[in-house]
Amino acid sequence: MDSALLPMATKMYSSFAGLSCILVPVLLCSYVIYYRYLHPLARYPGPFVASFTNLWKVYQLSTLRMPETLRQMHEKYGDVVRVGPNDLSFNTPNAVSAIYKAGRSLPKTGFYDGFTTFNPNLFGTKDDEVSFLRSLRWETLVPR
Q1: What's the pLDDT score for residue 143?
Q2: CB 128 within 8 A of CB 107
Q3: Contact 72/45 with Cβ under 8 angstroms?
Q4: Inter-residue contact 88 to 94 (CB < 8 Å)
Q5: Which among 36, 59, 45 has a CA at the least distance from the CA of 91?
Q6: What pLDDT shows up at residue 4?
Q7: What are the distances in angstroms from CA 50 to CA 25, 89, 116?
């Protein structure tokens, strides 16, 4: 390398290092502030670390403490607890139908056509009436 370019390269490297020493903490702080205070789920209570990273959930799952920790958090915070940046845990029976049962307000899209191309089946049926009738027929065959 040319000896005249060495001081210039050193100066560029030191300015980049100085800039990154300022920029990285600013970006990290703004990320935490957004997820903790400005995100749409920020109004739900939960552990501080869980509000901006999934590492809290990974730790709970890896140590097999997640069920017990969720129970304790629901006792402490209430029926809805934030367990990740984009995740909520619900502890109410009313939430089950709202979360898992879409009903007629959300019809199946064209994606499901691929499942009924060669053989019509209950999973791929987009017509709610047919799906309901087939599920009734299944219910009569399987005793409870």
Answers
A1: 60
A2: yes
A3: no
A4: no
A5: 45
A6: 59
A7: 19, 12, 41
- Counting every residue written for the chain, the total comes to 144
* SS3 assignment, position 82: strand
Q: What is the mean pLDDT of each run of 10 residues along the chain (144 residues)?
A: 57 69 89 94 95 94 94 95 94 81 65 73 65 58 57
Alpha helices in 34-109 (DSSP H): 55-62, 66-77, 93-100
How many CA atoms does the CB half-sphere of 14 hold within 13 Å? 6
Burial class (CB in 10 A: 0-12, 13-18, 19+), 82: buried
In this structure, what DSSP letter does residue 87 have?
E
* pLDDT value at residue 74: 96
Give the residue among 113, 133, 132, 135 at the shortest CA–CA distance from 124: 113
d(CA 63, CA 56): 11
Across 5-27, b (16+ Cβ under 10 Å) vs e yields: eeeeeeeeeeeeeeeeeeeeeee
The secondary structure of residue 79, as a DSSP letter, is S
Partners of 81 in the β-ladder: 89
